[in-house]
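Work Package 3 (structural annotation) set out to generate three-dimensional models for the target panel prioritized at the project kickoff. During this period the team completed the workflow that converts sequence records into discrete structure tokens, so that structures can be stored uniformly alongside our sequence database. As a representative example, we reproduce one entry of 150 residues exactly as it appears in the project archive.
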Amino acid sequence: MMWFDKRDTRVLFVDKRQEIHAADLGTANTRGRSPIVIDPDVIADFVSLPFSDATFELVVFDPPHIERKHALGLVTRKFGVLSGDWRPMLSDGFAECFRVLKPNGVLIFKWGESDYPISEILKLTPHKPLFGHKTRKTTHWCVFMKPLQG
């Protein structure tokens, strides 16, 4: 949802879902909306990416950020949900992102602070962000850089 051009050849969209959801729910604010199409280039889970170590110079990690048993509304249908034991899952996701990054590669982490504060989520990785967007109750962007070694 963040890309200016989803067909840009420099972008590789990975998601474990391949789905289409109706966005026109018959209400005034949804009438006439195009369907929500989740059609990744690669179908894979972010905790087990099908790429070799040190493949990418830039990775964007945009995991689900709302805890629910099922995706019910438009936002959770678009972005997925956190369910079950999700903290170790996010920790594993961070580890996978750093695994596929080249040394000095950049990880951009996006977090919507609706259910859990960014401070709690950043504890799930040993890596520290260089900088980011720090405000309350909003979408946060944090930028990490993979060390040359380690």
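Residues 31 and 88 are 39 Å apart (CA to CA).
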